[in-house]
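The authors assume throughout that readers already know how a fold can be written as discrete tokens. For illustration, here is how one protein appears when written out as sequence plus structure tokens.
>
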Amino acid sequence: MNIKHPYLLFGGAGLLSAAWVVFGRGLFGLLGSFTGLYILLLGLPIITLHLLIARNISRTTRSGHPTQPRTLIVMSGAWLCFTLLGFLIPDRIDGTLHAVATGDTPGQIGLAIGFSNPMGIIGIGLCVATIICAHFDARGPQPSEDELYEASQ
């Protein structure tokens, strides 16, 4: 699959993902004192990783090779993790932690925090895996061992 405008697609998706993770709670009136930290520690890395993904997919397109489905599947997994992270990530409002999915319920906010940490880590890891997949896509198909052996004969 050739992607014609990878910077538009993945740059835009990175901006949307970062905006959701950092500011999505604002749609529910839950922006608090952690928002500034989230901009630096989550928003900027998410956008940067998406721009690196777009660069590698752009190289794939320029080299004439198709982007493999695995690359897009891994990236979709990252987007799913970032979507869940936006619902689960807590913020401090008036000294109390709140999350979109749980509100400020004491027992449930701990559960939201417990799930938000892995969602963020897995999402970032899947972005790195997408960069690697896109890099290998740009190289094109590699000959098998049998083809290499036959060529040496």
